[in-house]
Design brief:
The complex is a heterotrimer of chains A (389), B (346) and C (138). Chain A is of the alpha/beta class and 389 residues long. Chain A has 14 helices and 11 strands. Chain A has one domain: Peroxisomal Thiolase, Chain A, domain 1 (3-Layer(aba) Sandwich). Chain B is 36% helix and 25% strand. Chain C is mostly beta strands and 138 residues long. Chain C has a domain of 79 residues: Beta Barrel (OB fold (Dihydrolipoamide Acetyltransferase, E2P)), CATH 2.40.50. In chain C, the strands form 2 sheets. A 5-stranded antiparallel β-sheet of chain C has the order 6-5-4-7-8. Chain C has a 3-stranded antiparallel β-sheet with strand order 2-1-3. Chain C has 1 helix and 8 strands; from the N terminus they run αββββββββ. Classes of the chains: A alpha/beta (389), B alpha/beta (346), C mainly beta (138).
Chain lengths: 389, 346, 138
């Protein structure tokens, strides 16, 4: 069986890049990963690009070829991967499987989104493409609205408090202070979150990840090539699962079943457990999703995510550091880029070369990327040791 | 010949109200003078997601519930309004599908200012009487327009009444007449947001001449006199006009009472006299006579005489009474009213 | 937005959206709204038929949308709920009327309303919204 490692990674500044296009950002991210890996771009055999909705954000489809073209990588095969907000992790998983299958030895997985070329209301409507267009978008639901429906239920069922939700954002902002590529690099307080404008009750402005432009890329290689690299970070487990696209069709509004299924697979493959994995990147598109993810990934029992956060267990020096570089909330959430960005941050933490962002003693890390309200969930576990065979 | 008349009826009035005081406050007018002059204290306001079609559907659902019939038996759907949401594209098609009528149904939108709903009733009556259809659904509904600051703003309201016309009625039609002339007292040109009106000209030569002429004609045709009726309903552009018409024709305040809905819901144009008729039917007893005379600017009036049957006792409670909608209210301020009526550009 | 403005899409779903018409599996009696044409439980052994829901339902969760997507700006703030229908399906719907009184587990009734308008010149989309039941109307 082929083993796969990440040997290079990088992401652009996540921001409102008024002066930069999707193609600029994607090319920059690709070059960052290539430089980080110290390879020649010509060694890359295939390209997978995660992107949710360039068709609606910038009117551009056919992103696979466009990325290969702009990066000067033609004629290698280039494929766009789409699973809403999990598009990045999907591209990563497809790249991983491309090597795993024996077809390739070196592949690039990238992710990108350019969201600010359209008005805010159009961006909100476009994001709803990740939900059920005929039955959710059609009645004016928004993504924050959908997560608010989950938050309300979570609060009622488990006693999760408004303050606990706020603490998620506070932790993410604190973690981003030293992340030069984060969109927001300032601390916020629980009080500030609670006084921010209501967007969809009970969720407020500071519960929400922003609208962001950005791109991220990683280079993956087979074990055959991994020896050439100084610090390969191995992919120990990869799980993907699906659930109903519409939130109203779910068995539960307070649990992402697909995350539990995907995580179980990744844990089994890696031989790790929620207790033994060192850190996690979770999908905090809205604060409630970080709390639900902490539960669904098994870091605490269902319903206890709020208390887990309140007890400081997700802090950089806590029991299970989560989103150690700022998460979607503070780094920003250029949809298709996020899943790759998470892998970049886990890779750096596992390599142990992350400067001010470094969390001490990280050997393994988990990245959980969620599409829509949980209709696609992809979990990867990475570590410093090559999987035992 | 079996009796033909109203088999089921239903009203709908939106829940929001704006008080005369609130409108007068904004325009610097004296609310007491206006209330005394119009005898209207507040008017209904449609929610931002309501229009003639939605009001028509809700009223018609109540009518179908009272009639206890399968909507597939309805052979005609006629919607009367002067605020059809589309200029081209019928309200009636939407209403018919929302009510799940058969696709083999006659549908048309009617417009005759405030009397389009009674005109629709006359058509249904004719079709049922001719044996062309089994049941006809006639609706009058409006989300009335009025220019901000115009006197009409105190009364122009939203609401509707729906009537299923057929055999085995709860109120049989004894007779119906119309009185029509080319009298331009109130109109709205294509593309204009608000109607124009002739102010005092809307009174004597328009409303009063047509309402009294039609009513007198009906009484004459049927050899009836005002005292033969227990309830009488006239179109209610305000509170004063129907009271004055009643007095002129020899009806008492008591006869007017049950159907006199204008003071607290305003004038819902095509819905006005029909909502009044639903309220009168809510109060009527078997054997009683009910007279309605609608009025439409332009101008014409339709008069009907109904004789209430025993059927009313078993059907009346199958849908909420008109009083339920009148009492179910929530007052809004002028700013909210402007938002709900979409007078704000957003 | 392009998709919300689709005339054929609106036309195709109108019966379902005007009158809560979904489907039901004759084999296992599971009711689906929105309609599904493959029973999730019986799969090929299921037999799907058209099914009209009664309209009885209650609120499972709700939110008040204050920041609307394109096309819904004029309606803010508006309430959206997940409603559990008496026959078992759960659906998303707007709650209209006195939204300040909205609560979890509250019974609701369907009402016919405008859902969306494609600008001032485009199609008006009608359908079911929900009102808090007051016991007076079915």
């Amino acid at each position: 069986m082929v083993d796969v490692a990440v040997v290079g990674c990088g992401y652009t500044k996540f921001d409102e890049h008024w002066n930069r296009s999707l193609r600029d950002l994607s090319t920059e991210a690709g070059m960052l990963a290539i430089k980080d890996a110290s390879i020649d771009g010509k060694d890359i055999q295939a390209l997978y690009v995660g992107n949710m909705s360039a068709g609606r954000f910038i009117g551009q489809e056919h992103l696979g070829a466009l990325a290969a073209d702009q990066a000067g990588l033609i004629p290698i095969p280039a494929t766009r991967c789409e699973a809403a907000c999990a598009s990045g992790a999907l591209a990563f998983r497809k790249a991983y499987m491309g090597i795993k299958s024996g077809e390739y030895d070196m592949v690039m997985a990238a992710g990108s989104e350019k969201m600010t070329d359209v008005k805010g209301t159009d961006a909100v409507a476009t994001l709803m493409g990740a939900g059920d267009q005929e039955w959710e978008s059609a009645i004016g639901l928004t993504f924050v609205g959908l997560y608010a429906l989950m938050a309300r239920r979570h609060m009622i069922q488990y006693g999760t408090t408004r303050e606990q939700l706020a603490m998620v954002s506070v932790n993410n902002h604190r973690n981003a202070l030293h992340n030069e590529r984060a969109q927001f690099r300032y601390e916020i307080t629980v009080d500030k979150v609670l006084k921010s404008p209501l967007i969809a009750d009970p969720l407020r402005m500071l519960d929400c990840s922003p609208i962001t432009d950005g791109a991220a890329a990683v280079v993956l290689v087979s074990d055959k090539l991994a020896g050439r690299f100084q610090n390969p970070v191995w992919i120990l487990g990869s799980g993907q699962a699906s659930d109903t696209v519409a939130l109203h069709d779910r068995q539960s509004l307070t649990e992402a079943m697909a995350t539990r299924v995907a995580a179980k697979k990744a844990y089994e493959q890696s031989g790790l457990t929620p207790q033994t994995v060192d850190i996690a990147e979770v999908h905090d598109c809205f604060s409630i999703n970080e709390i639900m993810s902490i539960e669904d990934l098994g870091f605490c029992r269902k319903g206890e995510g709020g208390k887990f956060v309140e007890a400081g267990k997700i802090g950089r020096d806590g029991e299970k550091p989560v989103n150690t570089t700022g998460g979607l909330k503070a780094i920003g959430h250029p949809i298709g880029a996020t899943g790759i960005r998470q892998v970049c941050d886990i890779t750096r933490q596992v390599r142990g070369d992350y400067g001010k962002l470094q969390v001490h003693g990280v050997k393994t890390g988990l990245a959980s990327n969620i599409g829509g309200t949980g209709a696609t969930s992809i979990v990867h576990i990475l570590g410093s040791e090559r999987p035992g065979r | 010949m079996p009796e033909i008349g109203i088999v089921g009826y239903g009203a709908y009035i939106p829940r929001f109200r704006i008080a005369v005081e609130e409108i007068a406050r904004v325009w610097g007018e004296n609310a007491e003078d206006i209330k005394n002059g119009l005898q209207v204290y507040e008017k209904s306001v449609p929610d931002i997601d309501e229009d003639t079609v939605t009001i028509a559907v809700e009223a018609a659902k109540n009518a179908i519930a009272r009639a206890g019939i399968d909507p597939k038996a309805i052979g005609a759907v006629y919607v009367g309004s002067e605020s059809h949401p589309y200029v081209v594209k019928p309200s009636g098609t939407i209403v018919a599908e929302a009510l799940m009528t058969s696709e083999q149904v006659m549908v048309a939108d009617f417009e005759f200012a405030c009397k389009a709903g009674t005109a629709a009733m006359q058509c249904c009556y004719g079709l049922v009487k001719a044996g062309v259809i089994e049941y006809g659904l006639a609706i009058g509904a409006d989300t009335s327009q009025s220019r901000p600051g115009d006197a009409l703003e105190y009364t122009a309201a939203a609401g509707g009444g729906a009537f299923i016309i057929g055999k085995d009625p709860l109120a049989s039609i004894e007779g119906t007449v119309s009185f029509t002339t080319d009298t331009s007292d109130f109109w709205r040109r294509e593309g204009e947001d608000y109607p124009s009106h002739g102010a005092r000209f809307t009174g004597k030569p328009a409303y009063f001449r047509h309402v009294t002429s039609a009513t007198k004609l009906l009484l004459e045709r049927l050899s009836l006199k005002p005292s033969d009726f227990q309830h009488v309903v006239f179109h209610m552009p305000n509170g004063k006009f129907p009271q004055a018409a009643a007095k002129e024709l020899g009806f008492t305040a008591d006869q007017l009472k049950a159907g006199f809905v204008v003071s607290h819901v305003g004038n819902s144009y095509s819905g006005s006299s029909l909502v009044g008729l639903t309220a009168a039917l809510d109060a009527a007893q078997p054997g009683e006579r009910v007279l309605i005379t609608s009025y439409g600017s332009g101008a014409g009036a339709d008069s009907f005489s109904f004789v209430v049957t025993d059927r009313i006792l078993e059907r009346r409670d199958k849908a909420p009474g008109t009083d339920y909608y009148i009492k179910r209210k929530h007052n809004v301020d002028y700013g909210t009213y402007i938002k709900l009526k979409r007078k704000l550009k957003v | 937005m392009v998709h919300n403005s689709s005339v054929p899409l609106y036309w195709r779903l109108r019966k379902s959206k005007y009158n809560l018409i979904g489907t039901r599996c004759k084999t296992c009696s599971t009711a689906y709204y929105p309609a599904r044409h493959l029973c999730q439980k019986c799969r090929r052994k299921g037999e799907i038929e058209e099914f009209k829901f009664s309209g009885q339902g209650k609120i499972l969760s709700y939110t008040i949308i204050r920041s609307a997507p394109a096309g819904f700006e004029r309606y803010t703030p508006y309430a959206v709920a997940i409603i559990e229908l008496a026959e078992g399906a759960t659906i998303s719907g707007q709650v209209t009327g006195k939204i300040e009184d909205i609560k979890i587990d509250q019974p609701v009734i369907p009402v016919f309303r405008k859902i969306y308008e494609d600008g001032s010149g485009g199609l008006i989309h009608y359908g079911i919204k929900w009102e808090i039941a007051d016991g007076q109307r079915a």
